[in-house]
Amino acid sequence: MIDLYTDSSPNGFKATIALEELALPYRVHHVRINAGEHRQPAFLALNPHGRIPVITDDETGITLFESAAILLYLAEKTGRLLPQDPVARWEAIKWLQFHSSSAGPIIGQRVHFELFAPEKIPAAIERFRHLTETVFAVIDSRLSQHPYLAGEDYSIADIAHFGWTHIARIVDFDFSQHTHMSAWHERIAQRPAVRKGVTLPEPATGA
Ligand SMILES: N[C@@H](CCC(=O)N[C@@H](CS)C(=O)NCC(=O)O)C(=O)O
Q: How far is the CA of 102 from the centre of ligand 1 (A)?
């Protein structure tokens, strides 16, 4: 059985969506970031960086933090959501890595500086708006050529990016001018596992 430690937030949704897509049995442990539960010793023992999501798998004894590692683990465990063909497989890993190193942190910083920073810093807001637009343009260009980031098939790369495009929509970061990315987002948002994944744990962010 997999235990998932998470909150209603973009990085957490990647794990809930993947677990729902794969129909793996799992237990959700709600780590309330607002209440500082991610800084408690019991949680820091699972992730010393104090961030959700975390999974433990009692079948293998493996504990993982970092959403990309979790997505790769779940894909490898089931043989699904990561193409077998080497070209598509490495496309999926490349776009997953692009998400973890570029898209996720950039959108996250934009959310911080536009919505949560105690002081409005125009240069920081402008910088992360510009960087977000660049990321959206890169994703849009890829999706103008293929239905999914890895190519023809939906994969963990799409799940990773969707975690943040879902939040971008909620906080009104408009990407409608990126028409291929917008259509991809709508298509993924309609998947039953995705609809459920973004509601976990309750209460859902922005719902
Ligand atoms: N690179 C990490 C980022 C995890 C992360 O930042 N999670 C956020 C919630 S979306 C968190 O736990 N924030 C708590 C904090 O910043 O103190 C991943 O992909 O898992």
A: 14
